[in-house]
């Protein structure tokens, strides 16, 4: 015998449309796909699937963690931006100095142990001349010099920038350049001058060695490159080995602090604390060089 299926009322039959849980006087258009609460068109927020209520959207935003690079920086779509900006600044300064000639060059380069009739010349004069520690890092006179340095920056920079993030990479570059300039200032022979991005480039080399060791990559290619550069440093005429070694050591120390910092909330503190300690060491080196010249 065939039985007719029982007739069941449709959901909410006779009860009218459901009201929005935030606005009881408004009919709900849809239900939240996460909590199933009814929401009106003014409250619904479009989601990848369906719609959500404002509370679920806020809760989801709190639980989503920001992506980070392997060493804690913020990832960027363009991982060459800082590298290309630094290359652009170096090229702009080069063209400016070519147009301004030797007087402008003399105003920007790093002067070691030099004296005039009135006293020391350059950084040792005091805070008004400390800018030379930085301007010398972006200063080149010969086209072969800037060409080699910028090719090295273009080759080394993007990988470190992608791994560290923009801010940490920029700090690494600038501190390496300043570290090289400070050691050059401390140890340079009398009446000598130094210029060029080589200290910063050697800092990137040192940081690349630390990074590849930290990531357990094959170190042989970068060690061979570093060895060749050190050979040129100590055999090629008119190369400031002090700036190269100072940049190399500074870059390696900064990279150790950044790439071996523990994960979690303490990591930024360790990373930027390392940068602060290195900056203090650079300032101490400049002070020692000044005392040596003026004392």
TrEMBL record:
InterPro entries xref list: Peptidase_S54_rhomboid_dom (IPR022764), Rhomboid-like_sf (IPR035952), Rhomboid_protease_S54 (IPR050925)
Keywords annotated in UniProt: Hydrolase, Membrane, Protease, Transmembrane, Transmembrane helix
Domain of life: Bacteria
Pfam families found in the cross-reference section: Rhomboid
The keyword 4Fe-4S belongs to this UniProt entry's keyword annotation: no
Spans through the membrane: 81-101, 138-157, 169-187, 193-212, 219-237, 243-262, 269-289
Peptidase S54 rhomboid domain location: 128-258
Record-stated family: Belongs to the peptidase S54 family.
Annotated segments matching region Disordered: 1-20
PANTHER family for this protein: PRESENILIN-ASSOCIATED RHOMBOID-LIKE PROTEIN, MITOCHONDRIAL, RHOMBOID PROTEASE
BP term (GO), one: proteolysis
Name this protein carries in UniProt: Rhomboid family intramembrane serine protease
GO molecular function, one term: peptidase activity
Gene3D superfamilies given in the database record: Rhomboid-like
């Amino acid at each position: 015998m065939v039985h007719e299926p029982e007739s069941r009322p449709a959901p909410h039959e006779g009860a009218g449309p459901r009201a929005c849980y935030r606005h009881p006087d408004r009919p709900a258009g849809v239900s939240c796909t996460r909590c199933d609460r009814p929401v009106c068109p003014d409250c619904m927020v479009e989601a990848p699937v369906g719609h959500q209520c404002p509370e679920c959207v806020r809760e989801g935003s709190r639980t989503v963690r920001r992506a980070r690079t392997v060493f804690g920086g913020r990832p960027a779509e363009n991982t060459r931006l800082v590298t290309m900006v630094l290359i652009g600044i170096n090229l702009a300064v080069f063209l400016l100095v070519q147009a301004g000639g030797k007087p402008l060059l003399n105003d920007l380069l790093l002067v070691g142990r030099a004296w005039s009739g009135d006293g020391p010349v350059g950084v040792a004069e005091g805070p008004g001349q400390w800018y030379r520690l930085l301007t010398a890092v972006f200063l080149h006179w010969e086209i072969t010099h800037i060409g080699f340095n910028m090719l090295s920056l273009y080759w080394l920079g993007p990988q470190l920038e992608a791994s560290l993030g923009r801010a940490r990479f920029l700090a690494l570059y600038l501190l390496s350049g300043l570290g090289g300039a400070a050691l050059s200032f401390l140890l340079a022979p009398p009446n000598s001058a130094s210029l060029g991005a080589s200290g910063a480039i050697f800092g990137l080399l040192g940081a690349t060695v630390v990074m590849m060791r930290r990531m357990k990559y094959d170190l042989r290619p970068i060690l061979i490159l570093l060895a060749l550069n050190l050979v040129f440093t100590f055999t090629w005429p008119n190369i400031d080995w002090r700036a190269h070694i100072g940049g190399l050591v500074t870059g390696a120390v900064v990279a150790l602090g950044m790439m071996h910092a523990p994960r979690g909330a303490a990591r930024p503190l360790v990373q930027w604390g390392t940068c602060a300690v290195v900056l203090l060491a650079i300032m101490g080196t400049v002070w020692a060089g000044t005392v040596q010249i003026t004392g």
